[in-house]
């Protein structure tokens, strides 16, 4: 019996290690963090933010869609509960959603928080999570861009802030990828993940020093400064194909005028267990995958549209 229990323990430990190696998620730690965040209301976490004496100089920027307005609290709690809390959180919210074809109704409790500013703005599609904040902040302000359906590890902002102090002229992310030489996006396999073959993601938990990439992955968070962009060009979508409009990570990364790096970080963001199905069903990724053909994937169309702007992959791999 003892040896059987030992084998089970070894098997569970191995499974957890494999999952961490590939995904950067510490399952037990994540379960504890989600449970801990859920024990308090958003107002209570906001009061914790107010009383914090270790706030960072980073502002956080995100957006959401109308169908998620009622569940964005979880992500906001994780941002307030950082070891170095943000200076401010900006939730960019248009009046009307082009994606869901309906109005945005902002819950009253979101408008009375000290840590959060609900910014009414134009609907820039998925890029609404970053463009309004880039336009509003000072040129050198460090902005951490995140997704509305993730919980970020408690040390995320502290790690990014520390790396930004050493690399003030670089865009930094917790994960990213290199454009493949054939300009075709494709699903990640076990082998491409292990070998970090483009376009498989390069994750910060598997790097010991900054690694230059082409595309920052917003799902895990990335940091930018307004001076990294020609803001006029960033807000001009007149020559942007529909596919590139929908994959904002690719477009924003292509138009970023400085080098982009994945930096070392202990763990990556994770999808909350509670309401996981709701988050998954409303994810834009379903639309971006296309019909199964690599040429139909929106990432493929976008990286081909911006083919001359990639610094690491693409034509540089020939």
From TrEMBL:
It comes from the Bacteria. This is Glycosyl transferase family 2.
């Amino acid at each position: 019996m003892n040896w059987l229990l030992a084998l089970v323990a070894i098997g569970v430990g191995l499974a957890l290690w494999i999952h961490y190696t590939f995904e950067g998620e510490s399952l037990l730690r994540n379960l504890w963090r989600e449970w801990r965040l859920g024990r308090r209301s958003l107002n209570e976490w906001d009061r914790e933010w107010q009383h914090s004496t270790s706030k960072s100089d980073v502002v956080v920027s995100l957006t959401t869609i109308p169908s998620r307005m009622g569940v964005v609290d979880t992500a906001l709690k994780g941002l307030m509960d950082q070891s170095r809390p943000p200076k401010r959180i900006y939730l960019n919210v248009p009046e009307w959603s082009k994606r869901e074809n309906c109005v945005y109704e902002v819950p009253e409790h979101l408008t009375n928080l000290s840590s959060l500013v609900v910014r009414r703005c134009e609907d820039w599609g998925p890029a609404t999570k970053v463009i309004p904040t880039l336009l509003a902040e000072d040129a050198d302000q460090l902005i951490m861009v995140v997704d509305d359906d993730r919980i970020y590890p408690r040390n995320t902002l502290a790690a990014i802030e520390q790396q930004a102090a050493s690399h003030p002229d670089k865009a930094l992310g917790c994960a990213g990828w290199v454009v493949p030489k054939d300009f075709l996006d494709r699903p990640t396999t076990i082998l491409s993940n292990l070998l970090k073959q483009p376009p498989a993601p390069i994750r910060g938990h598997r790097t010991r020093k900054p690694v230059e990439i082409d595309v920052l992955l917003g799902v895990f968070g990335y940091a930018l400064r307004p001076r990294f962009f020609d803001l006029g060009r960033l807000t001009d979508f007149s020559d942007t194909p529909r596919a590139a409009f929908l994959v904002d990570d690719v477009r924003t990364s292509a138009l970023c005028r400085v080098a982009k790096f994945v930096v070392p970080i202990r763990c990556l963001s994770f999808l909350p267990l509670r309401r996981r199905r709701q988050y998954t069903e409303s994810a834009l990724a379903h639309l971006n995958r296309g019909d199964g053909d690599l040429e139909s994937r929106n990432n493929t169309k976008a990286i081909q549209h911006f083919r001359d702007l990639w610094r690491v992959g693409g034509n540089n791999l020939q």
